[in-house]
Write a structure and sequence with these properties.
Blueprint lengths: L8 E3 L7 H6 L4 E4 L15 H12 L4 E4 L4 H8 L5 E3 L8 H10 L6 E5 L2 H10 L3 E5 L8 H20 L11
Parallel strand pairs: 1-6, 2-3, 2-5, 3-4, 5-6
InterPro entries: HAD-like_sf (IPR036412), HAD-SF_hydro_IA (IPR006439), HAD-SF_hydro_IIIA (IPR006549), HAD_sf (IPR023214), PGPP1/Gep4 (IPR010021), S-2-haloacid_dehalogenase (IPR051540)
Pfam family, one: Hydrolase
Organism: Enterococcus caccae ATCC BAA-1240
Length: 175
């Protein structure tokens, strides 16, 4: 029952995922959540670390597309300086936003990876869309009001998954 919430990988932060790691796994593009994955939910300006990571991906020819449940104006303000494409109102965990991003990239699900900090939306949705995924720790320990409810249920699901899958451990990268 909880297998639809199981991440493919668990990595401490999106910034620890490298182009070489992705290429070894046949991954040609990154789909990513916005809040608490790329940027802190309460700081839409991002960090130097984020800019460096995005440049590494661009230089390696790996496009990054934000797939977020946020409205377009919120995402645009956060990502336009990084020149990232995005899908707004993705309705995660439905597959709608994932399919829209896949179509924009003209790639197959096996060429993509979804990175997110929530198993109830990002991981469950990616699994439903047949896309490998990476659960990352949230950038900050606080969340917007709408995410706090999910976090309560996520703790219970993660506890169950950890018992069933002792290999589910946080790592410093995909290797």
């Amino acid at each position: 029952m909880f297998s639809k919430y199981k991440p493919t990988w668990m990595v401490d932060a999106i910034y620890k995922i490298t182009p070489n790691q992705l290429k070894k796994l046949g991954i040609n593009a990154v789909l990513t959540d916005l809040d608490n994955t790329l940027i802190a939910w309460d700081n839409p300006d991002g960090t130097e670390e984020l800019l460096t990571w995005i440049l590494e991906m661009k230089n390696a020819g790996i496009p990054v597309v934000v797939v977020s449940n946020n409205k377009s104006s919120r995402i645009k303000r956060a990502v336009e300086k990084f020149e990232l494409d995005y899908v707004s109102r993705a309705l995660k965990p439905s597959t709608r936003g994932f399919k829209e991003a896949q179509k924009k990239l003209n790639m197959k699900p096996e060429e993509l990876v979804m990175v997110g900090d929530q198993i109830m939306t990002d991981i469950r949705g990616a699994n439903a869309a047949g896309i490998r995924n990476i659960l990352v720790r949230p950038i900050v320990d606080t969340d917007g009001w709408n995410t706090r409810i999910n976090r309560f249920f996520e703790r219970k699901i993660m506890k169950h998954l950890a018992k069933k899958h002792p290999d589910m451990l946080w790592k410093g990268g995909l290797e």
